[in-house]
């Protein structure tokens, strides 16, 4: 039987009331309604027993698991990892492999496919390969064209082997001489942080004044940038055609000068210049939750900027405290630094990012010191071992699941609001222009956190001007409920 206008308005008012109670109702004519599914009654509390509906739009744990449609945790792996390494990471739930020992250039598809098959047989998937950019390319020296040709051949092979991301660095010298271990004797009782100080002395010379290594030429910023553009102009079109995304790691430490030579990827302005130099998703960044505040910028804000341009090709996930941008800072635990790591992960989920997230640079813990498991380039300067890696990994997974809950649990409420608008429009209680404006604001509220409050306010403004009293009351009630769901 056809519904009367009054019936439609009553259903719309009921929908708003039930949404305000924190539950959803199947609209008339939907599969759920046709199946006779029952809805919670306003005023009744949602069940909170284990496995029930603490967040009623999601099923635990299936819908908050890492998957091909979410950010995916990864860790450093060799091309042929030991069974012990595979076990320790799979026990922690990590299956993404960031390959740190790539074959010699040029790569071949056969070699990469063999790597992929070997790792997939161990229950892993390849997140990305690192590729070495030689000094001749960075410095613009003889032989760079041959080396660039090797990179191009390697990118073609990566595409043929189904490798989605290739990460690289671009610097004359990495200023690791500025690192030292900072012990936290107050909050974390002896944990070690990797600190950087541009002014500390090494053999009586301040780090900022260290001379170039023997045989290293002195170049200007623009000379190095010209060399970088020369490289990008030749390799990005090949990567694009191969279906491969390049991800350049920011210069870290991001000092202005590194042993006499400028760094061209050590500021937000540099990273934006990179994006503008060649307009392609294949010309992207490893967006870094730690290095971004090291240069004095908010990491979440920059992530939004890069995400809007589809250049977030890889993620490094660690935290810092900063005394002076680019000169003095400390790499700390993920939970006690300056970057809001939950907001950062939530923004990745909002963007639909589905590539790698590396929880990196574990802190030095007594557990790892006692077990002798602190090795590698950060041993002795505050770096940790596998105990610290597990801490960082567990934290990253918790942030990912919390972000998925917040984002996937929030969307159905916005869907309810849109259904309500459409219902009143169908009944003739809302004009087409008003429906269009309210729908546009609901779309804006679903995109970026900083837009949500203003968008919902605009939705409410339109609702308050609706002439039909019942429609106006229901829509303004819905707006109030949407506002209450915003994160504080």
From TrEMBL:
The keyword 4Fe-4S does not apply. It catalyses: D-mannonate = 2-dehydro-3-deoxy-D-gluconate + H2O. GO terms for biological process: D-glucuronate catabolic process. Gene3D superfamilies: Divalent-metal-dependent TIM barrel enzymes. InterPro entries: Man_deHydtase, TAT_signal, Xyl_isomerase-like_sf. One of its GO terms (molecular function) is mannonate dehydratase activity. It comes from the Bacteria. Residues 1-28 form the signal peptide. Its EC number is 4.2.1.8. PROSITE patterns: TAT. Pathway: Carbohydrate metabolism; pentose and glucuronate interconversion. Keywords: Iron, Lyase, Manganese, Signal. Its cofactor is Mn(2+); Fe(2+). Belongs to the mannonate dehydratase family. Catalyzes the dehydration of D-mannonate. PANTHER family: MANNONATE DEHYDRATASE. This is mannonate dehydratase. It comes from Micromonospora costi.
């Amino acid at each position: 039987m056809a519904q009367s206008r009054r019936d439609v308005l009553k259903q719309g008012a009921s929908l708003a009331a039930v949404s305000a109670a924190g539950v959803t109702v199947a609209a008339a004519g939907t599969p759920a309604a046709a199946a006779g599914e029952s809805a919670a009654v306003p005023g009744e509390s949602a069940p909170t027993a284990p496995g029930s509906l603490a967040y009623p739009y999601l099923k635990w744990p299936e819908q908050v698991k890492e998957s091909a449609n979410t950010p995916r945790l990864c860790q450093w792996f060799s091309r042929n990892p030991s069974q012990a390494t595979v076990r320790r990471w799979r026990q922690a739930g990590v299956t993404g492999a960031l390959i740190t020992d790539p074959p010699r250039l040029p790569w071949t598809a056969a070699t990469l496919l063999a790597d992929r098959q070997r790792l997939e047989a161990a229950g892993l998937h390849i997140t990305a390969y690192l590729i070495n950019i030689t000094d001749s390319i960075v410095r613009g020296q003889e032989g760079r064209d041959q080396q660039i040709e090797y990179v191009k051949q390697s990118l073609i092979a990566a595409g043929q082997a189904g490798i989605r991301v290739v990460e690289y660095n671009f610097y004359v010298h990495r200023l690791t001489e500025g690192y030292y271990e900072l012990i936290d004797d107050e909050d974390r009782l002896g944990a070690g942080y990797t600190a950087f100080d541009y002014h500390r002395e090494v053999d009586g010379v301040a780090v900022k004044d260290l001379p170039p290594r023997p045989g290293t030429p002195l170049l200007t910023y623009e000379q190095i940038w010209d060399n970088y553009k020369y490289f990008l102009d030749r390799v990005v079109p090949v990567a694009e055609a191969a279906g491969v995304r390049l991800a350049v790691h920011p210069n870290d430490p991001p000092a202005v000068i590194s042993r006499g030579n400028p760094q061209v990827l050590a500021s937000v302005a540099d990273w934006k210049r990179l994006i503008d130099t060649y307009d392609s998703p294949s010309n992207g960044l490893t967006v870094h939750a730690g290095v971004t505040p090291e240069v004095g910028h908010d990491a979440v804000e920059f992530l939004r900027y890069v995400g809007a341009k589809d250049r977030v090709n890889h993620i490094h996930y660690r935290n810092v405290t900063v005394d002076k941008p680019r000169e003095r800072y400390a790499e700390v635990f993920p939970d006690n630094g300056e970057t809001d790591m939950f907001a950062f992960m939530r923004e990745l989920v909002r963007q639909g990012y589905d590539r790698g997230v590396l929880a990196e640079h574990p802190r030095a813990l007594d557990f790892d010191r006692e077990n002798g498991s602190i090795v590698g380039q950060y041993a002795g300067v505050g770096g940790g071992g596998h105990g610290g890696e597990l801490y960082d990994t567990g934290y990253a997974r918790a942030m990912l699941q919390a972000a998925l809950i917040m984002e996937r649990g929030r969307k159905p409420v916005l869907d309810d609001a849109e259904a309500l608008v459409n219902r009143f429009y169908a009944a003739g209680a809302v004009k087409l222009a008003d429906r269009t404006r309210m729908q546009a604001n609901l779309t804006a509220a679903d995109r970026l956190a900083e837009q949500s409050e203003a968008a919902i306010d605009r939705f409410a403004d339109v609702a308050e001007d609706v002439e039909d009293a019942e429609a106006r009351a229901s829509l303004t009630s819905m707006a109030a409920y949407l506002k209450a769901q915003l994160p504080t």
